[in-house]
Each structure stands twice: as C-alpha cells, then as structure tokens.
Design goal:
- This protein is mainly beta.
- It has 3 domains: 134 residues, Sandwich (Immunoglobulin-like); 150 residues, Cupredoxins -  blue copper proteins (Immunoglobulin-like, Sandwich), CATH 2.60.40.420; 133 residues, Immunoglobulin-like (Sandwich), CATH 2.60.40.
- It is built from 6 helices and 31 strands.
- The N and C termini lie far apart (45 Å).
- Bound molecules: CU-O-CU linkage (C2O) and copper (II) ion (CU).
- The site of CU-O-CU linkage has 10 residues, from β7 and β30.
Length: 488
C-alpha cells in the first residue's frame, strides 16, 4: 500500500500542477458597444418613489449562442435604480424564478426587515414590498439576491444591478453625473462559457473561491468599447464577481482620481494609477481623456515574480482587458474636480460601546459556521464599536457588513491608505493583515430580524461563512440577549 499511496500522491501533484492557469491574458477585440443598464422607471405614489423589479430567467446572446441567464426586468442584470438622499422609496420585487430569492441592497443603511437577507425569502410567484427612507449621502451601491445557500448560483446567472444615491451637496453635483454619458456604470464579472454556450458553474477546485471565469463581462458585454465626448469621465467600478479580485488601471499608466468608495465620497480626490477591488467593493474613479484617443481600462496581472501557486491562491489575479474608452475628436471641457469632496470627519473613537474581533478561517468566522437560529452578537442602535477583522487563511476572504457603514482605523497598526479612508461596507482581507474598523450602527432597531456579516466570496457565503447580529434600541440589549442567546 505504501507504493500505492506514493503513486496517488505523485499522480495528484502532476494533476494539480498540470491544470491550466486560472485564466489567460484576456486581450479582447473591443468590438461591441458597452451596454448601459437602463435607469429604472419610477413613479411617486403617496409620497414614495416606487420601483418595480421582476426577477426571471431568460436567454442572453453574449456571442456564444443562447446562454441561459436570469435578470431583473430583462434577461441579464437589472436596471439602475437612482434615488435621492432623504427620499422615501418603495421597491416591489416579484420573483418569477423557480426557486426562492431575495433582493439585498448592498451598502444601504436600512431596517433589517427590508435588508433582503435569507430570513425573508420571496417564494416563486410572490412579490415583496420593501419601503424605507434613503438615509445616507451620495454613493454607488448595488443589489443582488441573498437566498439561503443559492446566492452564488443566482448572481452567476445574472441577477444584480446598480443602486445610485444622489444628494444635494454642491460638491458632488459638480462631478460628472450624466448617466451613460460622462458617468458610466462598470459592472465587472468573470464568466466561463462551456462548449454548449452555457455558463460554467463547476467550482474551480484549485482556486477554492468558487467559479472563476476566463472571460470578462462588463455590464453583460464581452470586449466592450464606449464613445465618450467629455474631458473627464467617471467610471463607477463595481466588482460584481463571485470570487475574483481585480487591480484596475489604465494602459500607459494613465493617472486617475478615486472620488468615492463603497459608502460615499472621500474627503478629497485621491490620485492613483491602480485600485484593487474585491467582490462587492465599489469605487468611483474619474479619468482625464485626450481628444481622439483610445484608452484601455485593464485589470493588471500580479507582480511577475509571483509563482503559479501564489497565482492560484490569489483569487486568480491575471491580466484582462476590461473596457476601451474612445474619445471624440473634440471634447467638451468638464468642470474640474473640486479640491474637497466631502466633510469626512476623522473617525471618532471616543465612546465606543464594544470592541470585538472576528477571525476568518476556511469557512468559519470565529470558528463558527452560519446558523440561522443563532444570533452572534447584539449591538445598540446609534452606537459605535471597534471591530478587528483578520484572516488567518491563505484564501482571500472579503468582509461585508449589512445595513451599516464603517471606517478603517488602521491596517496592521498603520493608518489606512487614502482609498481606504472613507466609508466602507466591504473590505478585502489578505491573509494575516489585521484591520481595525470603526463600525457605526445606524438608528434602525429591530429585536426580531437579524442583519448579516459574511465573506463576500459568494461560494464562501453559501457555505456558511456568515454570522448574524441584531441591532436593538438602547437599554434593550439584555432582554434581546435572553431571547436570542448571542454567542451560544
Ligand atoms: Cu453583497 Cu450580504 O451581500
Ligand atoms: Cu471567504
């Protein structure tokens, strides 16, 4: 048996090392115009701005024949919801899929009852009616299903969309904001097409982050270009992929400014030549255009000395062409970027109600796997807490917190880089890097419906890398604890 074991090990190594790299360098032809998801129509009814979404399956031609997909109000992705800060909104979501679904408003500050978590599935044929007041400043959010155990599958089929918040701050009004013209949604997703033109859904064993694709879809378009005619163009980058990370940058190292991250505007535009986004993270960037040029947005490969094993475990960092911007021969001058974008106060760590820490390892957070009947912690509405989040696992994990925002206090004891200094709800956790976060609990209290925190690698989320928390009113913590046994 000794020889047999050796032979099996040797065979396993050959099989493992012989597997093709996770993706090829994705040079594309840029021969299709970038699709821009339509703005969702709305109407005002009894003081609410009302939107209708319908989740359904369909068929989409990406250039690989007829691919079976799903979308909201269409066959792939969904319309962009655009709302104003302070507005009361109501979204009716009809589920015409053949399985339970939900819609989670990723990044939204809202009551747990309308957060779209797995506790309130929308059964096939049923409609959910979700109402809340938009109580946060201008930001680029998104929405996607969050049903128990089927999030990866439903997002992979195409269920996702953007949710944009505008506000009345004159500084944000000066930014490029004409949707589809100088303000472009850029939803980046990787997919693998099978021989039959269908999406590959087999997890890539060697990556362990679920399905990794070798083809990029941007707003559902493969190899997209977009004509632009302003001197500044804003791209709302959303990593809408299941497990892949991207280091976005332009060919020729064109500089750009990062103006906002997940939860809102940065204090000032941050000059950069690259930005990394983990699944679920967003960044708005503004890039200067030169008349007549073609400027290519890429996701760059890892450092050349990284070996194949590191590449396999790094969430598949490889080179992709993402999008070509084609500038008109003459460009309309844009308003220059304001020097100050928002009053981003330094994080206030006085009066912190609790300090907690969260270890991410394999499919657990603090050694626990998700249990819908277990509440992991109880927080008080309107308070602040310091959370330390830390991954001790070689696989990249991504921390996401529902219904609240946070600021990064420090990264391994050092101040965060400027692009991590603003409001966040999603954060990449490279192995052995310790992040201290100042979590701000919003005023929405509910003793019965929990929110979630979890890994945003959707395969990991489906496999239970998730915990639950209640946000209760001041003075209600003990009572809620006797009912829910947090930590039990
Ligand atoms: Cu974008 Cu709980 O997810
Ligand atoms: Cu994970």
């Amino acid at each position: 048996t000794g020889w047999l074991v050796l032979a099996l090990i040797a065979g396993g190594c050959v099989w493992y090392l012989d597997r093709p790299p996770l993706s090829t360098v994705g040079a594309v032809a840029f021969d299709r115009e970038l699709a821009i998801p339509p703005l969702a129509p709305s109407r005002v009814e009894n003081g609410f701005r009302v939107f209708d979404l319908r989740a359904d399956s369909g068929v989409t031609d990406f250039g690989h024949g007829e691919t079976r997909t799903a979308g909201y109000n269409g066959s792939y992705l969904g319309p962009t919801l655009r709302v104003r800060s302070g507005e009361k909104i109501r979204v009716r979501v009809r589920n015409d899929l053949d399985q339970d679904s939900t819609v989670h408003w990723h990044g939204a500050i809202l009551p747990a009852a309308v957060d779209g978590g797995p506790h309130r599935p929308i059964r096939p044929g049923r409609t959910a009616d979700m109402r809340w007041t938009v109580d946060q400043p201008a930001a680029t959010l998104w929405y996607h299903p969050h049903p128990d155990g089927h999030t990866e599958e439903q997002v992979l089929r195409g269920l996702a969309g953007m949710f944009l918040i505008d506000d009345d701050d004159p500084r944000t009004a000066a930014l490029p904001h004409e949707y589809g013209v100088d303000d472009l949604p850029v939803i980046v997703q990787d997919r693998r097409f099978g021989w039959d033109g269908q999406f590959g859904t087999r997890p890539d064993f060697s990556s362990d982050v679920g399905v990794l694709g070798d083809t990029l879809l941007v707003n559902g378009t493969i190899g997209p270009y977009r004509e632009v005619r302003t001197s500044l163009v804003r791209l709302r980058l959303l990593n809408g992929s299941n497990g892949r990370q991207y280091d976005f940058g332009f060919a020729g190292d064109r500089g750009f400014h990062v103006i906002s991250t997940d939860g809102g505007m940065l204090a000032a535009p941050v000059p950069r030549t690259g930005i990394r986004l983990a699944p679920g993270e967003r960044a708005d960037i503004v890039v200067p255009m030169r008349p007549g040029e073609r400027l290519v947005l890429r996701s760059r490969s890892p450092a050349p000395d990284e070996n194949i094993l590191v590449r396999r475990f790094e969430g598949g960092m490889d080179s992709f062409d993402v999008l070509e911007l084609r500038a008109a021969a003459t460009l309309t001058p844009s308003t220059p970027l304001p020097a100050v974008l928002s009053d981003l106060p330094p994080p206030d760590t006085s009066k912190v109600a609790h300090e907690r820490s969260f270890e991410f390892y394999q499919r657990t957070i603090n050694d626990k796997n998700m249990d819908m009947h277990r509440v992991d912690l109880i927080a008080t509405a309107g308070t602040r807490e310091i959370w330390t989040v830390h991954s001790t696992h070689l696989m990249p994990h991504v921390f996401h917190l529902h219904g609240q925002r946070f600021r990064v206090l420090d990264v391994d004891g050092e101040p965060p880089p400027p692009e991590l200094s603003g409001w966040k709800d999603t954060l990449n956790l490279p192995m052995d890097v310790r992040f201290r976060l100042l979590v701000t609990f919003a005023g929405n209290a509910d003793e019965n419906t929990p929110y979630m925190y979890h890994c945003h690698v959707l395969r990991h989320e489906d496999e239970g890398m998730m915990g639950q928390f209640l946000v209760v009113g001041p003075g209600r913590e003990k009572f809620a604890a006797t009912r829910h046994h947090p930590g039990g």
